[in-house]
Design brief:
The structure holds 2 protein chains of 2 kinds. Chain A contains 6 helices and no strands. By secondary structure, chain A is an all-alpha fold. The longest helix of chain A has 23 residues. Chain B has one domain. In chain B, helix 6 crosses helix 11 and helix 8 runs antiparallel to helix 20. Classes of the chains: A mainly alpha, B mainly alpha.
């Protein structure tokens, strides 16, 4: 147990706690049987996320809770390189921009632009490599989904997709 | 029974029979490997093409798909940490770390062999159980389903080890997500925030694609490099290592297959629960639980054997009672009805040739898919050596097209993106995604069974404790929840004993 409160551990715990309280309040907007299990889950979440906050504090009770739930991590391995805030934001923004492009212009416009731009700007690839990547991904989508599976891939709002 | 099998063998080993089997296996492998598609989509798409076929030919084609789709999904789970289908998600946890260590060939070899063996064991269980199927399925009522769902979430949270608290929180969040949409109890909609798209609830495939495919690609594009983390001269280990590892761990295969066949036979629970429970069971009984999640080959063998064995189990209620155990089985039921067959006890007597053709096709497809997988594993493994900045945009693009293709809904694409961001935050802040997924899968079943049980008990919640199986499952759940405390106490006692001595 660390002797200090780490922001990276406390912040998500506080956010989850606040969301749990919000959800619990929301469950009371419903009545009867439809309210029972969501409310039970809401209370469960509030208690658990509160314990998570306490476990992140440098107190004896926090240490006890952390010990109680301790053990060796056997799920997803630790040690990921988190990168700088700017790089994280950019990495998360790329798929967002892609989806935005899909909604407006459809997959067949968004895919080549996204793949080309991502490889060129984020991956620092040569323009020729980025062009090949964009063409290959678009062609794969066209062949597999449109030709072989006979799906009509989304064309986007601009091209009458909705 | 021998004469039924002879008839089925005669039907299968004709030119047309072999063609439909190979075609079904190929379709299953491709649909399984492409994230966002899967067996349900494959069978749904193939239905119109079966019009002109005989019932036996149609079930051979569908059997080929069902037998191969799970292994197809494990390929992308191992190489890209992106489960092709939801049940392959458990394979990611050890399959992908193996790929990162340059042992993708070994992981695929193990997945192929355990899938194949699991599928065959599942088929044997199906053959053995068909005569007594009715009695087994009728043992499970709503209280047992509720207890099973709660136990599933608890078991998975425990399997996350040091993340038990956050595992439970993620499970709670998963349950809240499962509550979104139409309320089968009161008839209205809940927690949709006025968004019409959410009336049908959170669609599982886009959510899973986001949580695993998109989130993983965001993480990889931050880190850079290649999927395989080994630097320098990366050696793809021999596929045969994985094959031998599977035979060395045959008890894991047997246990996984039994779990898969049993869970598969329970309607509404499905392959995802089967593979996660199989994974959890191998972790809980391991002498080295800390090695899981870091590339333990048994972490690949356990879910993959359960994953394929579940098909044999799922066919029990589908064929014997006409109760589909999953969406895939529901569509398969449609194929049978389309061909003038009425699933139920009478079908076992009147259409035995169809049933045994299916069983045989399923068994052969499991082996065929694994052989194709083994033959191509070395080349498939090379994907892990490609720069992530090439892989990431391609995977995100194809996965999101797959998500769109499922219901032709652009909202599904947005949902996958939102879950992709959520998945990345969960990775970054150490919340296990496994429990969230499992709770999402089981949430609807848990709530429905809970209310049905309360109605059955005339409002008395003691119904959960008055039935033997339900009580047994709840006791197991309590033991799971107190397990960390017990471990802690035992550790403290041992430490005190050593100090005093």
């Amino acid at each position: 147990m660390s002797g200090r409160v780490t922001v990276s551990r406390l912040t998500p715990a506080v956010v989850v706690f606040a969301s749990s309280v919000g959800f619990l309040i929301w469950t009371y907007a419903y009545t009867g049987r439809g309210h029972m299990l969501p409310a039970l889950t809401g209370w469960f979440l509030v208690i658990m996320s509160f314990l998570d906050i306490v476990a992140a504090t440098p107190t004896r009770i926090g240490a006890a809770i952390a010990d109680f739930f301790a053990g060796k991590v056997i799920g997803e391995p630790k040690g990921y390189s988190h990168g700088t805030a700017g790089r994280v934001l950019m990495a998360a923004a790329w798929p967002g921009l892609f989806v935005l492009g899909v909604i407006f212009f459809g997959f067949f416009v968004a895919i080549p632009i996204y793949v080309f731009a991502f490889m060129l700007l984020h991956g620092k690839k040569k323009p020729r490599e980025a062009l090949i990547g964009a063409a290959a991904t678009t062609l794969f989508t066209l062949v597999v989904f449109e030709w072989l599976l006979n799906y009509e891939v989304f064309r986007g709002i601009v091209f009458g997709g909705i | 029974m021998v004469e039924y099998f002879s008839e089925a063998i005669a039907l299968l080993f004709t030119l047309k029979g072999i063609w439909f089997l190979v075609l079904g296996t190929g379709i299953g492998l491709v649909f399984g490997a492409i994230p966002g598609l899967g067996g349900t989509t494959a069978i749904a798409l193939i239905i119109p093409f079966t019009y002109g076929m005989s019932a036996e030919q149609a079930v051979i084609l569908v059997g080929g798909i069902m037998g191969s789709v799970a292994f197809g999904g494990s390929i992308s789970a191992i190489l890209l940490n992106t489960p092709g289908i939801a049940p392959n998600a458990a394979t990611c946890f050890d399959g992908f770390p193996l790929a990162q260590q340059g042992k993708a060939g070994m992981a695929i070899g193990a997945a192929a062999t355990s899938s194949s063996l699991g599928g065959l064991i599942g088929v044997f269980i199906l053959i053995a159980v068909i005569p007594i199927a009715k009695q087994i399925v009728l043992l499970f009522g709503p209280p047992e389903f509720f207890a099973l769902a709660v136990m599933g979430i608890g078991a998975i949270a425990l399997s996350t080890g040091g993340k038990f608290l956050r595992g439970l929180i993620a499970g709670g969040v998963g349950m809240t997500l499962a509550f979104i949409g139409y309320d089968a109890v009161n008839g209205g909609v809940r927690f949709t925030g006025g968004v019409e798209y959410l009336w049908d609830g959170i669609s599982l495939v886009p959510a899973l694609t986001g949580l695993f495919a998109v989130a993983e690609m965001i993480k990889l594009s931050i880190e850079g490099g290649t999927v395989a983390r080994v630097t320098g001269d990366v050696k793809i280990t021999r596929v045969s290592d994985g094959v031998w590892a599977t035979f060395k761990n045959f008890p894991v295969v047997l246990r996984g297959s039994a779990i898969g066949a049993f869970i598969g036979a329970i309607p509404g629970v499905g392959g995802t629960v089967a593979s996660f429970l199989s994974y959890a069971s191998v972790v809980q009984t391991a002498k080295d639980p800390e090695s899981y999640g870091k590339g333990n080959i048994r972490g690949v063998i356990a879910p993959e054997s359960a994953n394929n064995a579940k098909d044999g189990g799922a066919l029990i209620p589908t064929l014997a009672f006409g109760i589909p155990g999953s969406a895939e089985m529901a569509i398969f039921l449609g194929v049978l009805i389309l061909h003038g067959l009425q699933p139920g006890p009478l079908m076992l007597i009147e259409n035995s040739s169809v049933i045994f053709s299916l069983i045989l096709a399923l068994a052969v497809a499991c082996v065929l898919a694994s052989l194709v997988g083994l033959a191509t594993a070395r080349w498939l493994s090379l994907i892990t050596l490609v720069d992530v900045h090439i892989v990431a945009p391609a995977v995100v693009s194809v996965a999101l097209v797959g998500v769109y293709a499922l219901h032709s809904s652009w909202e599904d694409v947005v949902l996958a993106l939102v879950f992709g961001w959520l998945g990345y935050l969960m990775i970054r802040y150490d919340y296990p995604r496994i429990t969230l997924v499992i709770a999402m899968v089981l949430g609807e079943l848990a709530e429905r069974s809970f209310h049905q049980s309360i109605i059955m008990g005339d409002g008395d919640w003691r119904i959960f404790f008055s039935r033997n199986i339900s009580l047994f499952l709840l006791v197991i759940t309590v033991l799971i929840l107190i397990a960390p405390a017990v471990r802690l106490l035992i550790g403290q006692w041992r430490a005190q004993g050593e100090t005093s001595s």
